[in-house]
Design goal:
alpha+beta, Thrombin, subunit H, about 250 residues, about 30% strand, Dihydrodipicolinate Reductase, domain 2, four-stranded antiparallel β-sheet, globular, 2 domains, 10 strands
Length: about 250
């Protein structure tokens, strides 16, 4: 009988950088197991090559695991046959995916590439508004404390509720990009003045980019406005990066 758990040496895979892919902020229940233990947890951000998760049982770097992610759509759990813990910080862990069945790889790719929103609370992820999607590009290194990330998420949600109405029927042109940048800078400046964002100067507390460096030709042709935001909720110039996509005339 084949062993239930196999080590990394059983899988010929090339080395990868688990932080090179854009990450999606999610909240997906998961179970984790190694040869000796079983634990419950929550995946808090996800890419095609790994994830960050919070566990109710401590594990250690270099441990090999199997994971099951229980998606909100009620389909069969997404199974990671072999994963390796790359870093641990209290109950948090960063995991690299080493091997998974072909059908689960397709499911993971679809999950990561479909536009999803930040996860708020304990329920399914929600969009800030129809046609508006948010990606966490970089959560800080190795990872920002959860309180800092919640602060940033709440700020984006608050701005989204207030600032998106005026974008609904705009064209995807430089004038609109400038309006988005100005609107976001004004909002983030208030957070900086209240010391919610940290920095002696505004550019140390936040930045906003919305131009041809943040959008592809495909974005321009299909009316998708894309901006990049950096926010420093803990220390000056230590940014959590978010990419926000707007479908104009949606």
């Amino acid at each position: 009988m084949a062993p239930l758990f196999r080590s990394r040496q059983d899988f010929p895979v090339k080395g990868i950088d688990p932080r090179r892919c854009a990450r999606k902020v999610v909240r997906i229940p998961t179970t984790v197991a190694d040869q000796h233990r079983f634990a419950n947890g929550v995946v808090t951000n996800l890419s095609e090559e790994g994830c960050e998760l919070r566990l109710d049982t401590p594990f250690f770097p270099a441990h090999h695991l199997t994971l099951k992610l229980y998606l909100h759509d009620g389909t069969t759990a997404l199974q990671i046959t072999l994963a390796e813990i790359r870093w641990v910080k209290r109950e948090w862990a960063g995991v690299e995916f080493v091997s998974l069945p072909p059908e689960d790889k397709v499911k993971l790719q679809r999950l990561c590439r479909e536009p999803v929103a930040l996860a708020w609370g304990d329920s399914m992820p929600m969009t800030l508004a129809p046609g508006v999607y948010v990606e966490e590009v970089d959560p800080g290194f190795p990872v920002m404390p959860e309180v800092a990330r919640v602060t940033s998420r709440n700020a984006i949600e608050q701005w989204g509720r207030q600032g998106l109405r005026r974008l609904a029927f705009k064209d995807n042109v430089p004038r609109t990009w400038g309006q988005v940048v100005q609107n976001l800078r004004e909002f983030l400046s208030v957070l900086w003045a209240r010391e919610i964002l940290k920095g002696g100067r505004a550019k140390e507390a936040f930045f906003v980019k919305c131009d041809l460096t943040t959008m592809t030709p495909e974005d321009l042709s299909d009316g998708t406005l894309t901006c990049l935001i950096g926010m420093a909720p803990m220390k000056p110039a230590e940014f959590i990066l978010y990419r926000i996509r707007f479908r104009l005339n949606f």
